[in-house]
């Protein structure tokens, strides 16, 4: 079955009791035991809920894993995943990881004795060099946030196999529409489902998919015991969002490509980061391991002043944190998504004071380019 | 203002634009910035959300603390608070406590170098014995789950202050309607909001209230960074539930008192655990406004447990508590299943123990149901 079809027909689309074409919202915290001796499938909502199960099973199928887990936020998913490890364990992590992940690792998990090396995972040699005796996992984001550096997923899996490490990927930017890390050998896939999977700027959520049964069972214990589970209504909203995931991704990606190409032509723009541009260093690798380039384009206007002027003039996209929605969202990483990263580290990773990140939504691309053009006060006349 | 009025008025007059009496559910995950560096006070929903704010402010006010935090479950709230501690830190904990807390402490947090000593907190000498140089906090449930032992909160607080320990209280069983631990010196109050605060067996939620600016800031950082926050709709459902908290609690405890009396004189019942009948009745009366809606009882014959549970018509056999519907739980295999059998039996959570969360049905119907189930087949 092709992906578009699987989004709509995966065994979780019909309520088996009534035939209802949408899974009901089971807003129950506990479940009656009809037979005292036999524990039913559902006991207490933290342990399992039919609506949440439908979502978890759907994402597991879409990511080709054995089990899915829904969380209260992307950070709740990431925090729970890190608790798979123990004090003294060491992780190798992409250096330009999401600021919230960086903050959790350096200010909370470090206190619990989990050690981290942040490396440029696009350089496999650097990854291998960072491996220590106590290294337990490699965690990557690709394309990275916000400057879209591409990490070789097969290469990472090969290294991990050699050193018996777990592999973890944040697949938020790509979604299973474009990239299936489990099929390339990854053990754990994480999503901030607040982004493309929900897609409507109306749900805060995280998802995890695990490749193997054994690890899934271990992870299930943490999910239930720590209890950072997703609310039922939010599970339903994600199921609803998933139905249009493919069409949304395709449309936004098409627009992102056009916008990136257009930005590249503008003298006011210092640099454009988008893997769909043939001159992007990760372009070929991206085409090899993913089936699309996604909806996020970053570009550098050279200075904080120019970035601010641009944002103030822009009318259509929301100026806000977050991404992956039907509405276009423009962010200023230095003060938003990566504000919790120290300035010198941030700049080392190209997250300069002139950098802007545009998450391209579903508005007509001509309207977006027109708006960007007037905000840039571009000397070039607008044409597509 | 009386607590009944505070509860009823949660969220009203807060929506300035339309005057809507009932505060709206803000589903938005992100908030537009009018200009750079010009936030409306809301940036990203994990950090803060207007609907969640109403709930968080309300619980902080009700518990007389400085800040409130809403989490996706009671366990998520406890996990967030445990983020305050570092490797090597030690906590002193109530002897009989919720099995989920025990599981989190023993199966997960010990792996990260935290250690826990479980003592009968009714006896101050036990606390003195358990403390050492790495002790950082005392974690109290009162009345305890499921044996309804009452812990003297001001005694614990005095001790905590003297030794510079955080005093953490799980106030799920009492709610701020009956007990306000911060008045007795607690630094942090926790709730499984799933229980009485939500009150309808339909929301999974946890709440944290902190006292003091520094502590509130630390917990706020953890709440946002760990991200186990409560969804806006669930925050709204909790607010909705809390509006009737006072009425429900009165009815819960009126029914519980009558059922406790009834069970005490029942031939099939060996022992009833309800704070009225405990040696700590006076402490309960000092620190709380009532005895609550939870009771446990030991039946005479353990082998009859299954048939008793099967015979119950009205009372549902399910985990959880604090809802309008009565629920009965078998701690040995449900709520406290994660506690090793030996430990469980030592603390008194034996195989003859049942825990009853008394709902707001008519008490005669509940009594009849219990009576026929207890007598049946005997």
Task: Write structural notes for this entry.
The complex is a heterodimer of chains A (384) and B (378). With 384 residues, chain A is of the alpha/beta class. Chain A is 37% helix and 14% strand. A seven-stranded mixed β-sheet of chain A has the order 1-7-6-5-4-2-3, sandwiched between helices. In chain A, strands 8-9-12-11-10 form a five-stranded mixed β-sheet. In chain A, strand 2, helix 4 and strand 3 form a beta-alpha-beta unit. Chain A is globular and about 75 Å long. The model of chain A has no long low-confidence stretch (mean pLDDT 94). In chain B, the strands form two sheets. In chain B, strands 1-7-6-5-4-2-3 form a seven-stranded mixed β-sheet, with helices on both faces. At the A-B interface, helix 3, helix 4, helix 8, helix 9 and helix 12 of A face helix 3, helix 4, helix 8, helix 9 and helix 12 of B.
Distance between the termini of chain B: 53 Å
> Biggest interface, and residues per chain?
A-B, 67 and 63 residues
**Unreliable segments of chain B (pLDDT under 50, ≥5 consecutive)?**
none
| Sheet with the most strands, sense and barrel status of chain B | 7 strands, mixed
Mind summarizing the main beta sheet of chain A?
Answer: 7 strands, mixed
* Rg of Cα set of chain A: 21 Å
Structural class by sheet pairing and helices of chain A: alpha/beta
Q: How far apart are the termini of chain A? A: 37 Å
Q: Radius of gyration of chain B over alpha carbons?
A: 21 Å
